[in-house]
Specification:
Layout: H1 21-24, E1 33-35, E2 41-43, H2 61-69
Antiparallel strand pairs: 1-2
Disulfide bonds: 29-41, 36-54
Pfam family, one: Ldl_recept_a
InterPro entries: LDL_receptor-like_sf (IPR036055), LDrepeatLR_classA_rpt (IPR002172)
């Protein structure tokens, strides 16, 4: 299995060990990527872009809160 398939939020192995929570929580992302709370790594350009790219939506949480509090 390819290295980038680990902790990508998709079960690639039949026994699902590629997405085990205790392994993915300690995943280290490269400097050019954002680490979701799930351990998933995504491109920095995808953070606060209005779309959920992390499976737990942690890349959009602050964006949603700011939009809720800002006056219209």
């Amino acid at each position: 299995m390819r290295f980038r398939s680990y902790c990508d939020s998709f079960w690639d192995m039949d026994n699902h060990i590629d997405e085990l929570n205790y392994s993915c929580q300690h995943w280290i992302c490269p400097n050019h990527q954002y680490r979701c709370r799930t351990g998933q790594c995504i491109d920095l350009d995808w953070v606060y872009d209005g779309e959920w790219d992390c499976t737990d939506a942690s890349d959009e949480e602050a964006f949603v809160l700011i939009n809720q509090w800002s006056s219209h």
